[in-house]
Amino acid sequence: MKSTIQVIGVFLFTLFMNAQDSTVVKKRIYTTKPLNGSEAPTINGIIEESSWDLVEWSGDFIENQPDENTPPSEQTKFKILYDQKFLYIAYRCYDSDPGKIEKRLSRRDGFAGDWVEINLDSYHDKRTGFSFTITAAGVKGDEFISDNGNNWDGSWNPIWYTATNIDDEGWTAEVKIPLSQLKFGKSKEQVWGLQLTRRFFRKEERSVWQRVPQDAPGWVSEFGELRGLIDIEPQKQLEIQPFGVVQYDTFPEEDGNPFRDGDEFKLNGGLDAKIGITNDLTMDLTVNPDFGQVEADPAAIALDGFQIFFREQRPFFVENKNIFDYRFANGQDNVFYSRRIGRSPQGSIGSSPINTEFVDRPTNTTILGAAKFSGKTKDGWSIGILESVTEREIAKIEDADGNRRETIVEPLTNYFVGRVQKDFNDRNSYIGGIFTATNRNLGDILNIDYDNPDTDETSELVGLRENNLNFLRKSAYTGGLDFRHNWKERKYFIEGNIVTSHVEGSKEAIEATQNELTHLFQRVDADHVEVDPNRTSLTGTGGKLIGGKSGGGNWRYTAGVFWRSPELELNDVGFLRQADDIRQFANVRYLFLKPTKFYRRANINFEQSSAFDFEGNYNRIQYEFNGYINYQNNWWTEVGAAHKPRIYINTILRGGPRWRFSEENFAFLFFGSDSRKKFNFTMGYVNSGARQNNFTFHRYVLRMRYQPFDSFSMSINPEFERNPNKTQYVTETDFDGTPRYITARIDQQTLSASIRLNYNINPNLTIQYYGQPFISRGTYTDFNYVNNPIASDLNERVTLYDDNQISFADDVYSVDENRDGTVDYTIGNPDFAFVQFRSNLVVRWEYIPGSEIFLVWSQGVNGLGDPRDHLFRSLDNQIFGQQPENTFLIKATYRFVL
Prior knowledge:
Blueprint (H helix, E strand, L loop, with lengths): L1 H16 L11 E3 L1 E2 L27 E4 L10 E7 L3 E9 L20 E7 L7 E7 L4 E7 L4 E3 L7 E7 L2 E9 L10 E12 L4 E4 L15 E7 L7 E13 L12 E14 L4 E7 L27 H4 L2 H4 L32 E4 L6 E10 L4 E10 L2 E7 L4 E7 L2 E12 L4 E12 L2 H4 L9 H4 L15 E13 L4 E13 L2 H9 L21 E13 L5 E10 L16 E12 L6 E14 L5 E14 L4 E14 L9 E3 L2 E9 L6 E12 L5 E14 L2 E24 L2 E25 L2 E22 L7 H4 E3 L5 E4 L2 E4 L9 E4 L3 E17 L2 E14 L6 H10 L4 E9 L2 E2 L1
Parallel strand pairs: 1-14, 2-4
Antiparallel strand pairs: 3-13, 4-5, 5-11, 6-7, 6-12, 7-8, 8-9, 10-11, 12-13, 12-14, 15-16, 15-46, 15-47, 16-17, 17-19, 18-21, 19-20, 20-23, 21-22, 23-24, 24-25, 25-26, 26-27, 27-28, 28-29, 29-30, 30-31, 31-32, 32-33, 32-34, 34-35, 35-36, 36-37, 37-38, 38-39, 39-40, 39-44, 41-42, 42-43, 44-45, ...
C-alpha cells in the first residue's frame, strides 16, 4: 500500500513538470446587433424579413468529425439578432441534393436526421453552456452543458420557438430564444462563448463554426465569442405551472380484502413554479408533485444483497441535477442521490399479518413540497440549495371482522442539500463544497407510552402501536470540499475532494447501521472494526485525489486513489454501496485522431487497479485492456479483456470472514452497424470465468432499431444472462455453537427485453410505448459449508455435504452434519423464479410551448414462477396468464410565463 501511494505521488508530481506545446487556434468573434425598433423576425423557417439585413452572415465552417480541420461537404452560415426580450438566430444549411435531407421525426431531444445547433456560454466560465438544437424536421433538442462538455443534461426543457423550411439550396431554420431562459450577469456589454455545429447526416459529418482540435481538453473552453450584446437587461424569470391529474386503477379483486376490491379512482393536483430571484439564480418550487407519467424502473435482482442504483427520471429532480452532483469516489457513489426523496416506505407492518388480515401499504412516500434555489453568477459562483419535506406514511391492516390497526412505515422527514463552487484563476480552477442534512421526526413515534397517553398529541397516535422504525437514524449530516486545477491550456489537471459524514440515532438504529452490508462491523476476522451496541452516532470520511493529462496530442493518462472509511454512511440522502475500502487506479489511453481509409476514429486503453481495506488487507488487483474503432462505413467494434489474479471480498459471507474467489479472467466483444440506417443493430457478448470453475458469467446482448418511415421507430433489446457459481451464499446458521456459512452451486438464468415504440404525429404530439418482460430463476444444488474461506484451492475453501448429511423434504433441507442421526440445522429452499412485466403507453401533446397534456396507460404484472420450469413457460404462466394491474391517467399542465 505504501509503495502504491508513493508511485501515485511521483506520477502526480510529474504532471506539474510536464510541458507540451499545443495547437494554437485563433478565437473567432461574431458581433451581433440589436433590432433597434425594426420589426422582429417571424419564426416560420423562411429568412425573408428585412430585419435580418441588419447583420452579416457568418460561415466558413470547418469539419470537426471525422476528418478534423478539413473543408466540410456542405457549408453552413448563420445570423444573430437581439432585442430586450429575445435572441434571434437564422441558419442557412446548404445541400447540393435537398431531396436527400433526412427529416426524421423523434421525441424532443431525439436528435434524429440532419440538425444544426447553437451553444451559448452566457456565463463565459469556459465550463458550462446552453445548447439549442433544431432538426430539419423541426424537432427541438435542448441541453445544459457542464464539466467542459463532458456532461450534457437533456432534462433541461426551456421555452423557445423554432421553425424550419426546405428549399432548392438546402434547408433553413429560424430560432427565437427568450433571454429569460438564459443566465447572464449585468454588464454594459455581454461577452458570451459561442459555438455552432451542424450534422450532415448522409456522411455522418460534424462541422463547426469555431474550430475545436480533436486533441482539445474540452468543449466549452474552446468556444469563440459572441459580442455586441449592449445594454440588455437580465430577465427575472417567473413561470407558474399548475397541473391536474385524473387517475383510475384496476387490479385483481381479492375476496374479502377491503383494500383490493378491483378498482380505485383518484383526483389530484399540484403546482410547479420557477421564479427568477436574479437573472443568474432561480427558485424552483413544487407542491404535491405528480410523477405518474414517468417511465417505470427496469427490473433487476441482486443476489449479492447490495442496493440497486436506479437513475433519476422525475422532472423536478432531474433538471439542474449537475449543480448538486458530488461523486466523491468511483462508481455511482454520490453524496446526493435524489431517489431517496419519495422512496418506498422503509418500515415493516409490525408482526406478520395472519391469513385473515389484509394490508394497505403505500408504495411511495408523498412529497409534500420541495424547493430548489440554483444557478451561477457572472463572477463564478455556482450555487444550489434544495429543501424537501416528505409526509409521514401509515399502513392500514384490517382483519376479516373489520377490526383495523395502523402502523407508521415512514416518518415525517426533512431533506436539505446545499452546494457551492467558485471559479477563479481565469476559470481554470475551482473550489467548492457540499452540505446535506436528513432529519426524521421520530420523537412522536419512538417515545410514546401507548398504554398511558397523557397528551392530546400522543393520543392521536395510540392506534399506531406497531411501528417498526427503530432501525432508522434520527439525523444524518454530510459535508465535503472539492477542487480542480487545470493548466497548460487545460491539458493537465489535478482534482480531489473529501467527504465527512455523521449519523445519529438510538442505540438500536446505530447498531443496525454497524451491522448493515455496507459496513459489516460484525465481521469475525476484522480487528479494526467491531459492533458497539451502546453507540448513538457514527462519523466517517471518504474522498479522492486524481490527476492526469486530459488533452493535447494522442496520449491521455490518469492516476488516483479513492477511499471510504468504515464508518462512512451516506444512504439517508446519498448513495454508498460499500464502506471500508481504498482503491488505487492508473490508466493510459491512446487516441487515433486522424482518420484513414479504414477507420474514422479509434482508441485503445490500458488500466490497472487495486483495492485494500482499512485493516491493510490487500483485496484485489486487476489489469484491463479495451479498445474501440469506428470504421469508415460507420460500423464499430468495442473489445476488452481483464485479468484478476487476486480477489478477496469482505462482504460475501454477510458478516462472516473475508472470502477469496479463484483467479478470474473476463472478456467482452460488442459490435454494431451504422446507426444512421433505418435498420441498425448492436450485438455483444461478455464472458467471465474463474479457475476451478468457481464461477462463470455469460451475457448475450442484441439491440435492434428500425425506423421504417420518418414518423415511426421501434426498438427491441433482448438480453440473456447465465451465471453459474459453485459458492453462492445461502445463509448463516449454527453448529454446536460455531457459525456455519452455507453456500451452494447456483444456476441462475435471466432473460429480459426492453421494447420501445415511438410514433411522432408532429414534433409536439407523440405516442410512446415502453415495455419490459423480465424473468430470473435460480436453482441451488451441491450445498456446502465454508471450511477455509481464504484457501487458494476451492476444494479446501468449502466442504460438500454428502448424501448421508443432507436431505430434502417439505421444501426444507435438513442437515445432519456429524452423522449422528439427529438434524443439526435446517436450510430453507433458496430456489427462486421471479417474473415481472412493466409497460407505459404515453400520448404527449405540447399544445403550446411549456404546456402539456399526457394520456398514460401503465401496466404491471409480478409473479413467482416455478424454478424448475423453463424460462418461457414462466413467461406464459406468470405474465400472459395473469390479470395485470392497470393505471389510466390524464395529466394536464399549463405554464404561465409572467
